């Protein structure tokens, strides 16, 4: 498996649920659609549908390379998360990612129990090259999958960025250390209102080859920004846009839809 936590983070940009249990008397559905571009040229599109029913949630999403992205790397895939909603937040029970890239099929499946990783499987298996930093059992406690990890509970917009997100993508354990960069506004289908733009520091913890150039670049990268918007009046905030500096330019992720449909 050769994906990086950055790729996993891109898949997280859908409207995901972590709704207070008091709001879950009826089924609620959310839609998120995003475009990924470089220098204004399309690279990929993602679509997400989230259904919250009682204390259970289900997230189903897809990613498809587009434009110049499809020319250089024809990638398409699906992701599905299942879990429960408790008083102290969302706890995923399963995470399944399937995708095809360069004609090769790949998959990641993660099982959770009590907020910690219970099992993880990659097909094909991870190729551990060079000086590999193994993931320790203690590092898999109190973590989330990449999809639900990017949804946060906060008392106010100004408090959204004051946190560290602990993520495991099936291969790599990483922390996203966030701080407030600024507050602004965003308008798209289904949402028009304030956003909190967080400066993000990527900290690889384990599950990677020491000295790998891609991860070293991300670790030193000071140009990662994620903007969060409120999900209605739930007290939950989800990513609505992002900017990530890369070695060839800034990758932009923007929501073309961010709304509840019932």
Explain what you see.
With 262 residues, the protein is mainly beta. The chain contains 4 helices and 16 strands. Strands 1, 2, 3, 4, 5, 6, 7, 9, 10, 11, 12, 14, 15 and 16 form a 14-stranded antiparallel β-sheet that branches. Strand 2 and strand 3 form a beta hairpin.
Could you provide a short overview of the structure?
This protein has 262 residues and is mainly beta.
Number of beta strands? 16
How far apart the termini lie comes to 38 Å
Helix content: under 10%
Low-confidence stretches: 1-25
Number of helices: 4
Shape: globular
Percent of residues in beta strands: over 45%
For the report, how would you describe the main beta sheet? Answer: 14 strands, antiparallel
What is the typical, i.e. mean, pLDDT?
Answer: 83
Oligomeric state, counting identical vs distinct chains: single chain
The ordered H/E elements are: HEEEHEEEEEHEEEEEHEEE
Gyration radius, rounded? 17 Å
Question: Class by helix and strand content?
Answer: mainly beta
Topology, please?
Blueprint: H1 5-10, E1 28-38, E2 41-53, E3 56-65, H2 68-72, E4 75-86, E5 89-101, E6 104-113, E7 116-123, E8 132-133, H3 146-149, E9 152-153, E10 163-168, E11 173-188, E12 191-206, E13 208-209, H4 213-220, E14 224-230, E15 236-246, E16 249-260
List the defining traits of the structure above.
mainly beta, 14-stranded antiparallel sheet, globular, disordered N terminus
